[in-house]
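User: Predict the full complex structure for these chains.
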Amino acid sequence: MKFRRSGRLVDMTQYLLNHPHQQIPLTFFSERYLSAKSSISEDIGIVKETFEGKNLGKVETSAGATGGVKFVPVIGNEDAVRQVDQLCEKLEDPARILPGGYLYMMDVIGDPKAMQDLGRVIASHYQDAGVDAIMTMATKGIPLAYAVAQLLNVPVSIVRHEQRITEGSIVSINYVSGSKKQIQTMSLARRSLKPASNVLIIDDFMKAGGTIRGMMDLAEEFQATVAGAAILTEAVHEEEKLVSDYVSLTRLTEVDVKERKITVKRGSLFDAD
Amino acid sequence: MKFRRSGRLVDMTQYLLNHPHQQIPLTFFSERYLSAKSSISEDIGIVKETFEGKNLGKVETSAGATGGVKFVPVIGNEDAVRQVDQLCEKLEDPARILPGGYLYMMDVIGDPKAMQDLGRVIASHYQDAGVDAIMTMATKGIPLAYAVAQLLNVPVSIVRHEQRITEGSIVSINYVSGSKKQIQTMSLARRSLKPASNVLIIDDFMKAGGTIRGMMDLAEEFQATVAGAAILTEAVHEEEKLVSDYVSLTRLTEVDVKERKITVKRGSLFDAD
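Assistant: Here is the predicted structure of the two-chain assembly.
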């Protein structure tokens, strides 16, 4: 089936969106559309112009025999700020206050579109970090982790508190929960993370940072390097954090249970601005 | 910024892909592109033709004052069969056999692209079921659940074995694990599922069906109806299943630990073919 330009543009757009962070040779498209490479190059130029004009991501082209095209999902700074500010406002709803000063966040975490949009902010931040695996802690870190992983085109390793029998040999470590000062265990299936990966850690919430610190130590057991850690919401904590190399999307600066007042601000990812 | 047709097609394609199962008025696009509705209608015709020609999904248009366009992700039967057959082959690798006759599947579940592709098969099957929430069991059902939820444009409710303190009031039920005959507890935060939702249950694995049965009962506690249940891999089980209204993508028909042989076939979703 031969495609006219209009059909090629539609198909090429969906193909690139569904294959982020992958180098696709021009020959792939010229065979797919039975079209000359020169036409394909023009098509790519149009896609690139539209994507970059609308801040949908970068379309990187490379020339030569191995020439091709790569779609890198990014988000413009303005869009990122707008999305995170909306989230802050949403999180400040006093109806979220739970006993113990916890915040109800499952509606945000349960919204796949919100996870995708926020995942894009993180994937954009780490676009050049050479991430080749995402590590997260079950349960509530998983949705954001998959959103980021999909955009960076890397697999996810799910760390757990339990020691499940259905995943073969596991690696467990003890760690000290920073806020509760309790010794806990976290485990990861030996097979679920390739040794010497460059890991990006994703989680939904961080207080003192004990869980993140634990995941960093666990990564070391797999000879992995840590590209960074990104947190949906970081609670501002009076004591020293157990980790320093992380970014947060939002900062929970105050939960006043008595006055029923929550204050949420942009996280450290935006600090440099 | 005025768009030429080529730019409109690229942007409209990405917009529809990112907003599945949503009715988008023509006026939205004519304002977005500062273009006449007649041009927008032609654009949509081109997108529709390409999407449907490539089996990428349906583009439904409606006329009149409230006229608009809706993208419904579907997968052609051939593509679905090809994807599921590939999965079956992958799962038959004897290296997956774990003690107790379990199967290592975290590599498949940990692959966001595989989850998206398989999620599309399920979202396609339930495209007209009026699903308005996905329910899944932590941990391993979550990735597939989010893939389906994103395509159906509905939220996810995560049921858990533990009773976490950070989600406010929870609803718990006891259920009997079908294969182990043990009484267990599952819980869902009261706030995390709107009453009277039409729920699609997603899980990674099913043996006797006790967990699925439990989630169906739990749904009832929220006055929800159950649109169906979809399972990544169903183990063929000698005893009667505890549920009947479900579909599976794959069927594990044999795990011979001694001979190190696994047999995996297409699941019940394909039975009618």
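The domain at 77-270 of chain B is CATH 3.40.50.2020 (Rossmann fold).
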